[in-house]
Structure prediction request, 200 residues.
Amino acid sequence: MALIMPDSVGNKQYSILITSALDGILNYLKSIIHGSIILLLAIAISNGMTESMAFIFGMSPIRNHVEEEQHIGVVYTILISSGLKSGQLKVHCKSFGTIFIEHVEHVLEPGKSFGWDFQVSNSWHSYDNYYSCNFDWNGKKVDLDVWDGGQRGTCVESKTHWAVLEDGFYFRCVGGEGNWEKRFTWEGGIHLGPSVDNAH
Prediction:
C-alpha cells in the first residue's frame, strides 16, 4: 500500500518508506495473530481439546485410547453382591466427574445383590469420572473406587461386579472373560494374590 504525497519532489522516497513501514507493521500483526493461534492450540491440546475448540480450528478432536471407549449415551452398570455369612452390608457410593447419578445408598442382607446403571455426560473428561464407595460391615469400614472411567481393565465396556466377603473385595467384569480377582481386604490393603476360580 503506497501513500501519495502532494509534493512531487521526494514523492517516491516517501512512498517507499511508508510502504515499507506498513508492510513491516502488517507482518508484525500477522506474526502476533499466528503466534496467538499456536498458543491457543497448545493450551487446548495440553488441557484435552474440546469439541468446540476442534470445530473452531477445523481439526479432529484428539482423544486418548480410554476416551475413545467412552461415549455419551452408553449405559454402564455396577453390581455389588454380599457374600457375607452374617450381618448387613451398608453401601454408600458417590460419583465424581460428569456422571448422571450422583449418590447411591443400599443395605444388603447376606447373599443379596443390587446394582445401578449410569451414563457419563462428558466423555472428554473420562479420567475424572469415577464412583467411590464406602462399605460398612460389623464395625469395619473401607472406602474404594468401584468404577473408574479413566483406567483400563475396570469394565469400561461391560458391567462391573463386586462381591464382598469376610476376607475382602472381589472383582470381575460381567460378560467378559476372566475369574473373580481379590482386589482389596477389609484392612484396606491391596491384594496381589491369584484370581479365585469359583464365583461368589
Remarks:
- The chain has a mean pLDDT of 71.
- Residues 11-46 form the longest helix (36 residues).
- The chain has two domains: 11-56, 67-184.
